[in-house]
Automatic annotation (TrEMBL):
Keywords: Nucleus. It comes from Cordyceps confragosa. InterPro entries: Fun_TF (IPR021858), Osmoadaptation_assoc (IPR053178). This is Transcription factor domain-containing protein.
Amino acid sequence: MVRQRPAAPRASPAIDDERYFYYFDVFAQRNSFSGKTRLFTDDVKQMGELQRLPYFLNSIRALGAIQAYKLGPSCQRRHIGDAYTSYALYSQAVTGLRKSLDGQQHGLSDSNRTALLWTTLFLGMFELMSDNSGRGWLQHMVHGTAKGLAACGPSICNTPTGARMFLQTRMFEVCRTIVFNDRSFLTEPAWRKASQRLWSNDGFSEEWRPLDSLVDIMLLCPDLRYRANQFCNAEDDNPSPGVPNEARDIASAGMALRDALNTWHKAHLADEEATESHRDTTPGGTTLDDCSLLTRLFWSAISIYLSGEFDYEMHHWTRFGLAVPTFDAETVRGHVATILALTEHALERSSLSPLLFLFPLRIAGARSVRAGRAQRARVLRSLDAISERFAVGQAIREGLTDAWIGMGVAVNDW
């Protein structure tokens, strides 16, 4: 093997395999997407048949290499090599994946289908770490992982490896749909039934947590927001003389979702919160495990999000005289305080992936326009901390500050 010259250091994937697999494990340990004890690397390591697929291995190596780059001392020559190698491996994974798909004349085998889904998921994670626009992640997530999962159909949950893939993708999908106010195929009845059946399976029933049923409800909220936005935009252009049936349906669906969230809260959080109130425990001083912390964070975020589907266009619903699931200002402030405190705690002390905090922070930030400067600064500090690990955090930050400026907040007032 020819030794690389110092002027152009390039870490060799073959030489650094052990190191990059190590940093892939480090990435997994620092990025739990559920707060549960099982890591996604546990699932990957059990799928020995995938280890023969170069594009799958290169996606793992690429993640390991970029994690090594982000954690390594910048003064070392190998630091630059890791950055170069991570992009080279990423490119090889993308090319290999495309060639594999082009070469499939009679459809994908189960193992190749699983490898495709995991590969696109890992490539999406790589994009989130390296691309601050978020476009690369959307390409892999929407046109890769989500499209591939949808093509497989709910029957993918019938196999252990497929079910594990579904559970990981589901967490990414709920974050994506809320950040971009988009619809998800996971709201289709067949997928909802598959998700619910999964937890009665002997291999998964012991892993169920209240977060899992909360996510099922959360996925329905951006779907309703999409409908509400379409309706309100049409009303802006051509107001209806009476009360349209679509308005009644949207308002009714919103109230049903609020009822579902309240029922979930009563069953899973109300007693815990009452006990904590007697201890005078502040949200930031929580002793919750990671999954419980994430559950509280998502609960507050989706509670405000559902209110925002209506109160930002309240003039329409007031005109129609329809009851909608909005919150008063004090309730919103309480949820925002919880989001900020729990996010700060999680960034400092948990193994939860910072990616999970992007949409709660975006929601809290949108509700900080009329708050004090200190609150807006807290939102941005958390986004800056996320940006150090995932470049996409910068895109969320810029979108939020642009929104603040558009709503009259001075540039120097955060």
